[in-house]
Amino acid sequence: MKNSFWLSDFGKQTELITSISAIARSVIFGSVFILATNTVLQPVMASTDTTNSKVSESLSVPQTKEARVALFQQAVADDLAGRNSAARKAWDVLKNTDMAAQSAVPSAINLAALGKFDAASTAFDALTASSNTRESDYARLWQLWLTARTHVGKSAALKKELAILASGMNVSSPGQQALIRLYAGKGSTDAVFAAIAAMPGTDELQRRDALTEATFFTGGYLQFVTHDNKAALQLYEREQNHLNSTSLETPLINKAAATLQAAKH
After folding, report:
1. pLDDT for 247-262, tens place per residue?
2. What pLDDT, on the 0 to 100 scale, is given for residue 202?
């Protein structure tokens, strides 16, 4: 089964995972796995907007690996809390450091969260060429979502474009393959979640990981391809208690749900 990947790779490269704290936990956003720590990330996430804004106003390239890891964690915390502009400053700094590769996926998600869809598309297009199949598979889902989100014109033209784009996509995860079939017009929302339910050997964290990813991309399909906002909101609300709270997709889901809910009144 394909699952989160991020700081299993990241930890090997930084060699700081054990030195920062003896207690580490997985922070997952969809398919992207970030290793954070209870002693470092948790207090950062709890800090105020004012504090974070003061820090981000004076960002410069950190001189030590440990400081760069801390900045990375701060950026994740800011994105999780909806402080996307503050996080953007950190991602822009990190892309010019030895952590550029590790920052690429969350940075691209951040661009989408800011509504910078052209830049996000460019970033995810580049990631589809990654030698890391988990990155490239995840980026392909974003290509479909961004194509739907930014389409202007008739629905028939969008569906044709998505079908062509999806036709060349092959991924290893059954849940992700079901999402690709959905965007291609060959699947269904039920099939996406059935594929996740049928995945073998999943623990609770992996299950929430897959459900968060599926909820975000399925909801995007309902909103931007079939234009069924009622069904999208029902999906977001149905899965609300099953989402991974430390997924960078979760605040995007919550924002979409709030927007749809407000439009009803």
Report:
1. 999 999 999 999 999 9
2. 79
